[in-house]
Amino acid sequence: MKLTKFRIKHYKSIVDSGDCYFSEKLTILAGKNESGKTSVLEALEDFHQDKTIRQEAKPIDGEGVPEISITFVLPDSETNEILKAIGTDKTVTKDAVITLTKKFGVTTYIVDPESRKQINLPNIYEISKKQIQESIKKIDALIKSSGAGVKFPNLEKKKLSDFKTEVVTFKSQNAGLTDVVAEVIMIEKMSDDYYAQEKLVTDFVAEFVKSQLPYFVLFSSFDDEFPKSIPIASLTSNEWAQDLEHVSNFSTAKMASTNQQEQVNHETSVNVDFSEKFDKYWTQDKIKLQVKKDGTDINFWIVENNKLYYPSQRSKGQQWYLSFYVKIVARLQEDKPNVILIDEPGLYLHAKAQKDLLQVLLAHTNENPVVFSTHSPYLITEDNLENIRLVEKPSDGTGTKILGKIHAHPTADKETLTPILTAIGLGINDSITNLDQKDNVVVEGPEDVFFLRAFKELEKKDLKTNFINGGGAPNMGIVGTILEGWGADVHYLFDNDQGKKDGVKNLKAWKVLPDAIKTVLKKDGSTIADIFSPEDFKNYVMEDESLVYTSANSEYIKNLNPKPDKVLLARKFLQKARAGEVTLSDGTKANIKALFTEIEFKDE
Known about the structure:
4 domains, six-stranded mixed β-sheet, alpha/beta
């Protein structure tokens, strides 16, 4: 089972968030304060199977009932297992796309009509109603011809269950009208079939929730301090002890063992294991966690510069991070599926610690996404731009929106975009401090950035080069000049089209040397899309092998109506490349090799 997207309506400041797609591992909600990021996380938490939508979610202004929808993809094998478990012989032959919706005031979930078709349990109400109405016409005709002078119940404006009750009463009172009774039995069957189908749907949802639906766990603060001690008598029920068992080789049974040799050996093993794990993801200073049994207690110490400290005696940032590491990693390591929701995880941490935090999340995510909110540029990097979802609250009163594409932001204001723009700048600055990574290629737009990263991934090249979005051919000189002012080496990579001609004119004004100006392909009119052979482009970029065209890839895209989102296509290709789902032809590989030769920085 895989989560694909969510949608939130009439929840606090959110009128309609629109569809927001989860990323593979991390989904980053970026935006300024008061934009609605926390509301998005709270809504997702309310989707948890044991919760109702919180009372304060009701919009203060305006109308509407709060609701949250999440869409899943369920493999056919898992769908069939659920169908079998609820006692039906119905099956499916392909993956099912299922959308569950929770509304204010209830813990149950609603499935939409399209989802019901996907699981082979469509809504048959209209069909049943039509068949019943045809039977009613027959019955009215039979009654009229018999001269019985009775009136058959009317279906209009009644619940089917109430109508059936009236029909059963009519049948018992008119048992002598045998032809009518036979038709009434048909109506009863159609009603029973409808309710039987509805029960299967209810049972399917209940079984799906029980066996497949992940828990939605929100961490909005980490106020619980790591304990300085835990009584041995309460080890098995202590939450911290249970979490330590998930994140390390800590064993409550061995720590409480009366066999001194086993207990001491385990104590030593835990100290080495956890300290090594934590040291990998806390690079600020050298610390160790020491666990030691003392009488009836298990004591916890932080060792720094050979001195023992209680966890509460360390900095707020270090305490917060230790708490974060244990609690978050524990939830990610549990057997039950969890969707981890984190509100502003970087508040207590300086820049380097925030980068460590990001590595913890990347290293421990499972098949379910981690969703976190931030307005910190240190949690947004060049490598995770495709994970960003902009959260913005426009001033026109239309409510919080979630923008899925950072490159397409017709409404996002400057403050909303600042963390992203700053993050890219910080990424460049970090690389300049390392002389081996001071090379930068400024490109025309995000499409080029995504393709170049994918090519680097596929070629397994140890290429220490930043690919920087220049904001369009006319602006590349501005970006490059800033980089050069920071001491970076810069190349400018253009498509071989009119944009290059215009861009090169601007570069001359910036005194850029001709050797720094590069082209993706030598052929006039070509763009980065033409690096691909037509077969590779159809298969891996357009995702449709059946396409037929004889023009260049770039020309084919240009003439499509409606035009596809080229940046989204490039981003999806990068994701395929990282997942190992791409095998390129020799022609495409040759073009990529030539491109990397073209942009290579020569040692002076």
